[in-house]
Amino acid sequence: xxxxxxxxxxxxxxxxxxxxxxxxxxxxxxxxxxxxxxxxxxxxxxxxxxxxxxxxxxxxxxxxxxxxxxxxxxxxxxxxxxxxxxxxxxxxxxxxxxxxxxxxxxxxxxxxxxxxxxxxxxxxxxxxxxxxxxxxxxxxxxxxxxxxxxxxxxxxxxxxxxxxxxxxxxxxxxxxxxxxxxxxxxxxxxxxxxxxxxxxxxxxxxxxxxxxxxxxxxxxxxxxxxxxxx
Length: 230
Hints:
8 strands; about 20% strand; single chain
């Protein structure tokens, strides 16, 4: 997994057909997805329950590129090794999920994965200042975590700009999760984001039997982002 700042589209399988995950992962990659984003929720840290390491292990053979696992769970540390063994290339934990974030990031890297750190909408960019040398990715939540299909929170664009300034030349991705579509993609790309998670905006209108729609949706988001991204 090499580093660059080109726009990467990471469809969230939270919006895919749960009964057909393997084929869905293959379809979105064939249609131009750069990463596959897996939203893990526990019904405790966020008000929803999705899936765990067994699902990640089951879909891993169907993913050729990056499997980006977003842990919206608390506690998070006891489950890091399981998700790493399940094949996660990136494991992202929330800074709000526990009191020892530095230790969590150490554990993710020790397990062999890239370390991501997610910030809820109410968490300031400054909270990651002393953790920047421990992270490979910062995920800015542009909705409140827990459910797909929410409206984009525009105040987070300024947070992205602040993070981009703080990161400087460090090889750290800025990921956006929530409400990404062709309208919001250029806002966050211009602010400095390079990984765009999109659920309903990618999967809406398509299916495994009609995957061309996925490709059209992915291209629309990428074109909108790259039109303003420098």
